[in-house]
Amino acid sequence: MTIQKFNFNMIRYFVFLFFFVLIIQPVAGQKSVTISPEYPMPGDWVSIVYTPQVELSDGTIPVVRFTYSNFYELPQKIEMGKKGVLWETSFKLPPYAVLATFVIDAGDQAIQPAGDRHYAIRVYNKDHQLVRKSYLYKGYSLSAQEGKSPGLKGRQAKLFEEELKHYPDNYEAKLRLLSYKISIGDEAAKKHLYKEANEVIAKKFYENPGNMGHTNSTTMGYLIMGEKSRLDSLREVIKQKYPNTEAGYELRIGDITEMKDSVRMISALEEILKEENDKNKQFLTSAHEALFEYYARAGSKEKTLYHLSFLDSGFTPYTPKVLKDRATLLYKYGILPDTALAFAQRSLALADTFPISLIRYFPETGYLPSFVSRQQREASVKEVTGRLKSLMALIQLQKGNDAKAKGLIKEAIAISADDETLKNAGSYYTKTGDYASAFQQFRKVAYQQPEDTAAYQLMERNYKKWKGSMDGFETFDKEIKGHWMEVMTAALKNEIINKPMPDVLSQYVDLAGNPLPKDFIKNKIVVMDFWATWCVPCMKAMPFMESVYQQYKNDPSVVFMIVNSGSQNELSDAQNWWGNKAYSFPVYYNKDRTIGDKLGFNLIPATYIIDKDGNIRFKTLGFEGSSMTRKIAAQIEMLKN
Questions:
Q1: What is the pTM of this model?
Q2: Quick one: how many helices (H) and strands (E) in the chain?
């Protein structure tokens, strides 16, 4: 009797404890973070307060990390400040604010309301109603919160439906919902839904045909529906039916500037400018810009100035860079040095507003620069100042003002050691016959930018002019190349992995269709690069892959396998590839169409470096530019050593 009573009481206790944990713990988690005010509006200050449930380790500073946000002017991460036992941060909502989701990183913890949910700041209007696009953006934010969880698309669709309940004319929400319905519908339903989607897109376009905002919305609509092929026909409709609209002029001028025959191009641009009047002149500035550049190159002062007079259209976030680019163009072609200097001086006066990060533009909001930290801005101002002063030095030298040029170049070098400033300084010293100083400037560039082959050649050229021969140059060459290898090796230490290579070799054949021997890569360092004939980035990577192959083609310990991935290719595609004649590296074909799943890549080019024990040690996805030659060489050397 006593034992039974004891067991019953224990069971009741554990049941109570279970429900206490189940019910109370999430509430406590929710209360650990509070957001105020309850109904924030654009322009309001929002406060986030975090109350740690356990004591944080020394030195830990909680950070608000936005996982989805249209608060573009705010940083992605914001450190919190301590107030007693609480941590707090505040910021002002931009006037265009709609939604942001976030977690709080506290050491190795990510504080969030649930495993698949993040905290949200949702913006309201004065009637305490969520602003337009709130549900739409909430749908977008689910990807960051849930990843690829089952049912994600359906949950997003419900939010798109909710958006349309509150804002029935939301074009983007309509198309997102239709796209989802098409993905789950049968063939009959899909046909009807595609028709409905095209009607929605057409309606948007014809609200104001030729308006760039509506044209961009139409383009976005076709992309949402997966109908990229419709974009060319859209452009043709605009050019044929609405040639004298904003979009019409932009497309027509764009076609003209792509002409290879410069005589025909100039004639066509000047012909289109005959249509210019007060109503359309703002649509024709790109024609004047193209003609300004052409006549500057041709050395026609009068026509350069004429078209330039149409280009001063007020200030935008891009104005400082535009001014600098125009000054550079005029200097490069030795025309209108006074005008070039004036442009450079105006740009210098705007150095603290020079564009740094992504700048978005929406018709309803205008330009929206992304967040830039104080440190980034200060570094940018120094760099831009150095570049502009060194450019001004070159222009002054061109004008014959040697003393002013000398003073400006010294100022520039003292302010910034960025590549552009150094190259301008190198050019200045070359022009003034100070080849030793020119060599030192280009040497610094080569030291900082190993892929800048032009700077390296200028370094060699000035060394020879300085010394009269190339004797002793090998010391500098060895020093620079050793530096490059040290930097790359240090970076690669953070990328090294150790994962057994799956048995995929049995699915490879050479270009004659012959299978490869089982011991083909035994005790070898293998560079295995996956590509396809249709892959543009892969084609861009091939010259650099050939370069590194040439370095190691005679090394018996290294094997190169340039493997056609086979995802959308047949053996005949690999056999008939033009690169077989252009490059000497060995090419193979992979018959396994699931190779990406086995090796863990979903884009190409994909490059794997495998050690002699058959383990993957390095993996690179995508084309990384000319640095890949140096990177692969460093990876090979690390495994050899």
A1: 0.81
A2: 24, 18
